[in-house]
Structures are given as C-alpha cells and as structure tokens.
Fold:
Amino acid sequence: MFRYDNIKQPKTRKGRETFERIVRAGEKLFHLLTYPVASITDIAREAKIGIGTFYLYFESKQSLFRYLVLSYHHEIRRDIAELARDGKNRQEVERLGFKAFFRYIFKNPYAYTIIWQSLVVDKELFNYYYTTFADKYRIGIQKAIDDGEIYPDMSAIDIAYALMGITNFVGLKLSVFNDGIKPTAKDIDKTVDEAMKLVSHGIFIKK
Structure:
C-alpha cells in the first residue's frame, strides 16, 4: 500500500505554508513542463525557497510526485463520499458521485495531467491509484446488485471500471478538451444529466 513515505510533515504554521508552496509549485511545473523536465531547482525557484529547504520536506522529486497523486486519490474519494452520502438509491449515488468528480476536476485542472503521467513515471503508483479506486467502488455496486437495483448477472468490478471510464473521459471533455472555456455550474449539471442518461438507459433502442 502506498503512503506518504519519504515526506516530513511540517509542525509549524510557517512550515505548513512552505510545504504548501512546494506542493503547488511542483504541481504547476509537473503540469506545464512534465515530470521528467521539471527539476528540483525549478520547483524551488517557483516556490521561492532554497533547494535545501525542499529536502527538509521531501526526499526526492518522486516523493513530491507521489504525494500529489495520492492527495488527488484521497481528495476525490472524500469529495465523492461526502456528496454521495445523500443519495437515496444507487442511481442517485452515481449522479452525485459524477457531480463531485466533475467539480473536483474543474477546481483542480492539473490533476489529470499529473495522474496520467504516473503511467510512465511510476506505473506501480498508477496501478494503485485506479485499482484501489475500483475496489472501493465495487463494494457499493455489489450491494446495489444484492439489493436488486442492478442486473444480477453483471460483474460489480467490471461495472466499476466502466463507470470510472465514463467519468474520466467525460471529465476530460469538460475540463481539458474545452478550448480554454471554463465550465459553469450549469454546464456541469448538464454533463451529469447526459452521463446519467447513458448509465440509466443505455444507448441502444430496444426493438
């Protein structure tokens, strides 16, 4: 299991501010320059700190990269859980989960770039990110199958990956393939509605 290894968490307010500047600088440069190109010197310069200060908190550039990916993993799951807890059935839970994910991606535009870079930078981390997400997702879907809300002959884990695929690529359309136009709350709601049409009704006309 991945943890925030090789990281020294700050204990003072000033330390937390410095830590956050390093994280935001790394996030920005991994997005703009990519992980292989962005150096610790670049990150320190962007954060307005000395290189030695970087090493007070992070053992290496990779430890900062892992911290970012694991933070996205935790925050997305947290936001989905908080919003989806109000769902009265599985369809409502999925709708609220979609909405939470799209909101998060809109507020954190660098997340996609960095998460997907991990496929090349740290494949073990990439696998961990998606497989653990799917494993947790599967539990709720299996309960919905057991409760008669989803067809009983369907695989919970396959459904989990299919729904993750929908959210990932629809999220890309909303936040990356948008010609720089920021989506409004209404745009997000409309996107959620369209995604739920697919989930609820499928795409094929029954004859």
